[in-house]
Amino acid sequence: MVLGRSGFKFQNWAQTYGSNPELFFQPTTAEEVKEILDLARQRSKRVKVVGGGHSPSDIVCTDDYMIKMDKMNKVLKVDKKVKQVTVEAGILLSDLNEELTKHGLALSNLGAVSEVAAAGVIGTGTHNTGIQHGILSTQVTSLTMMTASGDILECSESNNAELFQACRLHLGSLGVVLTVTFQCVSSFKLQEIQFASTLSEVLDNLDTHLHASEYFRFLWFPHTENVCVLYQDPTDKPPASSSSWFWDSAVGYYLLELLLWISTFLPNLVPLINRFFFWLLFATRIERVGLSYKIFNYDCRFKQHVQDWSIPIEKTKDALLELKAWLEMNPKVVAHYPVEVRFTRGDDILLSPCYKRDSCYMNIIMYRPYGKDVPLQEYWSEYEAIMKKVGGRPHWAKAHTCVRRDFEKMYPGFLKFCSIREKLDPTGMFLNSYLEKVFY
Ligand SMILES: Cc1cc2nc3c(=O)[nH]c(=O)nc-3n(C[C@H](O)[C@H](O)[C@H](O)COP(=O)(O)OP(=O)(O)OC[C@H]3O[C@@H](n4cnc5c(N)ncnc54)[C@H](O)[C@@H]3O)c2cc1C
């Protein structure tokens, strides 16, 4: 019999959202998950599953029952021949990366952090960069899920194919994901080359950059022309890194946080900070080599608010230049660095922001130095307006103000997803206030 704990307080990684679930569960088996769902059904409670708790929104918040999957975190099967791994859904990618390395395998792409769970990353459409690569959900070849009725469904391209295109980006709204099978590749090293450029150079030569490096992204420093380009490519070179505590932590973290905190009293400092840090940390060419996941993952520094919309790739230049021009016309609005620009291959997952189109993700950020909130409303609204104008779709885990009528316009498969969800969860057991805005 699985016991729920009362008094648990949930907070997401950025400490921007939290909730006090009535009961908190950490099941160890599918049978225990079923007991929790049975109890929830008897008592008319809603249920939210949390993975790594990294989503910078209220997508996992609930006042009813919360299930944390961290005790269902085993690697169940490694098939070296076809390079596939089946895991329990609560495994953190940080553990999976190490386990895969032991078997000579790796995930072909990862987001910035790996302290996130297998079902969590696919739940919100986590992505990285690389125009030959899709969002992380495209690496999933099959999964199993317990629905609100307690039944276990299995889906893949050949089995329950329509359900599979919904489950690969599920928003935590279809059931409790129990296991996930990922297509892997042979373990590989990456060489990262970082070099300085300008916004006009990168935008004018976007196609060249996209083809020059398998995992190309760039960081734009708002209020300036400065850009840091990052190329990451497979290599056989031996591991090498020039990282230093002084530059990475003392300067890149502690000094930045202090200066951004000071700038909350003197906002005019922000453009200078952006310029100064570009010059300090990003203006010189830096190379490093390491195991793929060690290069994919990077330090996201301190707590922050973020928005990250995907737009059709051909709109990249227009959208960025419009944002830059708007900031220039509104000098009272300040924007922290970086605006991170990444590229992703289109797919056919119903709620994927890259559904049927190659995409550019444009991530904007406002830090919360020492936990202090900074004004962001004007910047946030203008960014959203530009993203909507160019046909954007928001990242499901990050901030946005969209509601059902927006999603109906954005996603050709939205109504299909809704009907699958309504069939699997007719009483709305897996809904919360975030999902009500999406589906009602
Ligand atoms: C520092 C930082 C860096 C980030 N970098 C990136 C990045 O590079 N690229 C990017 O795209 N995003 C990025 N994100 C966002 C992050 O990848 C997503 O929020 C991701 O969903 C987090 O995974 P998680 O395990 O923490 O999920 P959670 O936030 O715990 O959950 C996400 C969703 O999955 C559901 N869920 C989780 N487990 C299950 C389960 N077993 N069954 C059913 N539903 C489940 C939850 O209910 C929720 O709907 C970053 C976030 C942070 C804080």
TrEMBL record:
Its cofactor is FAD. InterPro entries: ALO_C, FAD-bd_PCMH, FAD-bd_PCMH-like_sf, FAD-bd_PCMH_sub1, FAD-bd_PCMH_sub2, FAD_lactone_oxidase-like, Oxid_FAD_bind_N, Oxy_OxRdtase_FAD_BS. It comes from the Eukaryota. GO terms for molecular function: D-arabinono-1,4-lactone oxidase activity; FAD binding; L-gulonolactone oxidase activity. Pathway: Cofactor biosynthesis; L-ascorbate biosynthesis via UDP-alpha-D-glucuronate pathway; L-ascorbate from UDP-alpha-D-glucuronate: step 4/4. Its EC number is 1.1.3.8. It catalyses: L-gulono-1,4-lactone + O2 = L-ascorbate + H2O2 + H(+). GO terms for biological process: L-ascorbic acid biosynthetic process. One of its GO terms (cellular component) is endoplasmic reticulum membrane. Keywords: Ascorbate biosynthesis, Endoplasmic reticulum, FAD, Flavoprotein, Membrane, Microsome, Oxidoreductase, Transmembrane, Transmembrane helix. Belongs to the oxygen-dependent FAD-linked oxidoreductase family. NCBIfam families: FAD_lactone_ox. Oxidizes L-gulono-1,4-lactone to hydrogen peroxide and L-xylo-hexulonolactone which spontaneously isomerizes to L-ascorbate. This is L-gulonolactone oxidase. It comes from Pleurodeles waltl.
